[in-house]
Amino acid sequence: MGQAGSGGLTGAPRVARVLVVDDEENLNWSLVTSLRREQYAADGALTAEDARRRMVDVNYDCIVSDIQMPGMDGFQLLS
After folding, report:
1. Contacts with 39 (C-beta within 8 Å, 6 or more apart), sequence order
2. Tens-digit pLDDT profile for residues 18-42
3. In 6-74, where do the E strands start and end?
4. Helix residue ranges per DSSP H, 38-73
5. How far is residue 9's CA from residue 32's CA, in Å, rounded to a whole number?
6. Torsion angles phi and psi, residue 57, rounded to 5
């Protein structure tokens, strides 16, 4: 994996922001940790509702979401 984006005026690469949404805590943690090791700015959310709240405050470049979750599913989250 590598970084995405351009640094604009500074010339430094912009760090891509990724949100991982999965109700399986161990999988969520593993994905977020792996992305951070690769220098991505990664956040994790255990519910679609939490993900929605985070998406209000942060403009994510990529969202990796489980489909089957309790409450709101991944399709509803991204619609």
Report:
1. 3, 15
2. 999 999 999 999 999 999 999 999 9
3. 17-21, 41-45, 62-65
4. 48-57
5. 29
6. -90, -25
